[in-house]
Amino acid sequence: MWKNNRRLRNCGKIIIIVILMSFLTMFPLYGEPLTEQQTDLTENSMRFYSDLEIDLLIEEIREAAHEAIEQAAGEAARAAFLQSMEREAAAVYEAQKWRMEAERQRMEIQVIKKAGNKNTVIAVSVGILGGLVLGVAGTLALGSR
Fold first, then answer.
1. Contacts for 45-54 with beta carbons within 8 Å, 24 or more apart?
2. Is the distance from CB of 72 to CB of 15 less than 8 angstroms?
3. Which of 10, 25, 110, 143 is most buried, taking the most CB atoms under 10 A from its CB?
């Protein structure tokens, strides 16, 4: 369970890092080459970008950030799902353990009941035979006087 919380925190950290990096750094973009000629560098080696190029760059960064967020959200959902599956598996295991314990106790009770019934039959038989023996012996002893 703690492992998944760690994964969620890691996903959150990755999202924050990706978003910050997308705003703070310039990643090289590999796309279709521009159809227009690139402007020459100025005297101080700076290139000027058109508004369209800046808008395209911002849109690509936004798309990359959205993809990273969706991927992190998918990872978080997967981690949450795994965590709930672990909890459910633990609950099923616990229920199965208690079910097995109840079945074992039920079997023990049946064995004890059978032994109790057998002991009752033996005790009744001994009582009847003992009473019969005492009765016959008493009759013989008293009858011979």
1. none
2. yes
3. 10
pLDDT digits (tens, 9 = 90+) for 35-83: 665 555 555 556 677 888 888 989 999 999 999 999 999 999 999 999 9
| Residue 107 pLDDT exceeds 90 | yes
Instruction: Sort 21 into a burial class: Cβ within 10 Å, 0-12 / 13-18 / 19+.
Output: middle
Burial category of 8 from C-beta neighbours within 10 Å (exposed 0-12, middle 13-18, buried 19 and up): middle
Report how far residue 96's alpha carbon sits from residue 91's, in angstroms, rounded to the nearest whole number: 9
Structure tokens at 31: 């796309």
25 in Cβ contact with 97 (< 8 Å): no
Backbone angles phi, psi at 114, to 5 degrees: -60, -45
Beta strands in 3-139 (DSSP E): none
C-alpha dihedral sign at 7, 9, 12, 14: negative
